[in-house]
Structure formats: C-alpha cells, structure tokens
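In this section we walk through a basic example: taking a raw amino acid sequence and producing a predicted 3D structure, encoded as discrete structure tokens. The instruction is simple. Fold the sequence below.
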Amino acid sequence: MWKLKVAEGGSPWLRTTNNHVGREVWEFEADFGSPEDRAQIEKFREHFTKHRLEQKHSADLLMRYQLSKENQGISILPQVKINDNEVITEDNVATTLRRALSFYSTLQNNDGHWAGDYGGPMFLMPGMIIALSITGALNAVFSSEHKREMIRYLYNHQASPF
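The resulting token sequence is shown next.
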C-alpha cells in the first residue's frame, strides 16, 4: 500500500534549509495497513475509475484516509441544523466554526501544512516513460508498483472514447 511521508528525507544529494517542511513523498510499503485498510483503498480506486469521466480529480481520498487514521484523537462535532425561520445564535456559529476547524485539523500534516494532489506536471510522464524505455533505464528507475500506479493514472485520465 502507498504511504504518504511528510517532512522526511535528507541525504548528501538532497539538502534543505527548512528541515524538509512541506516535502511530500509517496512510498510503497507492501505490508503497510491492515487487510481492512487495503480493502478500503481498493474501494476508493474502483470508485474513482468507475466515475473518472464525471469527476476528474481524486479528491485526495488515499491521503485523507491515511490522515484520518493518524489523527484519530480529533473528533468532529455534530452538524448544527438550523431551520429557515430559526434565529442563528452565537453558540450555533461557534459550534459550526469549531466543527470546521476540527475537520481541517484532521487533514493537516504533522509538520503543519496541508498536503494535496497537484497533477499539473503529470503531462511530462509520457515523455519520461518513453525516454527511460529508449535508454533501457525504465526498470532501474521504477518499481513494479510505480509502473502499476502510472498505468492506473494514465488509464483514469485518458479522454472518453466517444
């Protein structure tokens, strides 16, 4: 299963002036998560693939699922229901604001930033794959799990056949 690692890294080839704050790296760990976690991730994948033509963005479900597991001590308050003719009280507003802050704190990483999917540079991937194939370096650079995810990504983002 893929795991988001935040603010980690460092080597003679990778330097930082801020201790890698905000750095996001997805790493594959074969034994990460329980069988239930892996089944839930597979459900997310199947749902995204099924609805890929209606909703192009992944909604960061893998990341949100992982962060919800890591931030379990944070409770989300119940939603405040207000009727059309009901007066909005200060208590209702304060509860709603606390609920929003609780929700966003479950999405916040341990280094303080909010990670997210930005697929902008992915248009470079086909050219990179072609170049690595031509040079014979594809298998040296990418593991089988990386290749599987790249195939999934390209399939899910190709245009509709009609």
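Looking at the output, two observations stand out. The two ends are 34 Å apart (CA to CA). The chain has two domains: 1-80+92-117, 122-162. In the next section we compare this with other chains.
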